[in-house]
């Protein structure tokens, strides 16, 4: 009995240590929408260089060309996005951006993404 209790305590300690080592506390404090963006979208819409030959990541590069500098190439810096716009593109896709199924990004996650990407839109009343 005593032995089991010790094992259980040791196991709990191990799990706690493993969890601390794996997760970065700063990232976990970020809003859900930002964490989802970093996970699903930043590979194309983030900063930094893209595949060999591309100056930027494909989403960032395509939007730089599309708006010719009139809007930020980075989605995370846009001030004109609404949750509806984000939902439209996420569910329908565009160009090399494939649509996301509800099994990949469910409606609650999509809402969080939309909230985060439209957080700087002055036309949206903050509740
Ligand atoms: C495989 C790369 C890729 C991924 C992953 C990706 N996108 Fe895109 N996305 C693009 C490209 C490329 C465009 C621009 C297409 C065009 O109009 O030329 C785009 C366009 C968009 C647009 C339209 C912006 C505008 O003003 O036209 C939105 C909104 C968007 N993406 C949101 C997202 C979100 C949110 C995610 C993550 C859930 C995501 N994208 C993931 C490549 C990607």
UniProtKB/TrEMBL annotation:
Pfam families (UniProt xref): Cytochrome_CBB3
Alphabetically ordered keywords of this record: Heme, Iron, Metal-binding, Signal
One example GO MF annotation: electron transfer activity
Residue span(s) of domain Cytochrome c: 28-121
Top-level lineage group: Bacteria
Leader sequence segment: 1-21
InterPro entries: Cyt_c-like_dom, Cyt_c-like_dom_sf
Protein name: Mono/diheme cytochrome c family protein
